[in-house]
C-alpha cells in the first residue's frame, strides 16, 4: 500500500466496521516503520489506528534495506530501531524480527546477540514477536555460507525466544488472498521451530493492549 492510499484504507475499514458492527469485530491496523524523522506521522498513526505492527524493512526511508544486510553494524542499527520504537510504546507486536537474515551470509555471533537483545526487548515491554509465514518461507530455502535454510524465520532466533519465554504470534503475512487457500507457508514456518517450547499467545486482546500502550506513548 502506497502512502497515498492510506486515507482510502482508513475509510474502507471504518465503513466495514459500521456495516458489520453486529456480526463481526473489525479492527483498523497497519504495519508501520519506525523513522524518528517522521514522528508527526507516527503520532497520527498511533492516535488513529486500533493497533500497530512494527515491521522494520529499512533503517531510513527507502534506504538501507534490511534485505541487503551483510555486516554486524547494520544488524545493531536494526535492533536499535526496534528498541526505540518499543521504548516509545508505538507498536503492539514486532513482525518478522529476523527478516534481516534474508541476505546475511551466516548465523554468527552478531546474529545471536541480536536475537538475545530482541528477546529482552520483547520481555521488558511485553511485546509479542511474530513467527512469520510470508516471503521468507514462501520462496523456498536459500543457500548460505553455513548451509541451506529458509531466509526467515530461523531456528537459531526462535531457540532464544523459546529459552526466554517471549510471547509469540503466528503471522501469515498474506499479500495475495489466494495464499489463504493453502497451509504450505504455515507448515514450512512451523517446521523451522518444530520441537521448541515456544510461548504462543493464544487469545491476545491486541486492541485492548494497544489502548494501554497508547496511554504511555510519547
Automatic annotation (TrEMBL):
UniProt pathway: Amino-acid biosynthesis; L-histidine biosynthesis; L-histidine from 5-phospho-alpha-D-ribose 1-diphosphate: step 8/9
Protein name: Histidinol-phosphatase
Biological-process GO terms, alphabetical: L-histidine biosynthetic process
EC number: 3.1.3.15
Keyword Hydrolase appears in the UniProt entry: yes
Record's catalysed reaction(s): L-histidinol phosphate + H2O = L-histidinol + phosphate
PANTHER family xrefs: HISTIDINOL PHOSPHATASE-RELATED (PTHR21039), HISTIDINOL-PHOSPHATASE (PTHR21039:SF0)
GO MF terms held by the record: histidinol-phosphatase activity
Lineage, opening ranks: Bacteria, Bacillati, Bacillota, Erysipelotrichia, Erysipelotrichales
Keyword field: Amino-acid biosynthesis, Histidine biosynthesis, Hydrolase
Listed GO CC annotations: cytoplasm
Keyword Transmembrane helix: no
Family: Belongs to the PHP hydrolase family. HisK subfamily.
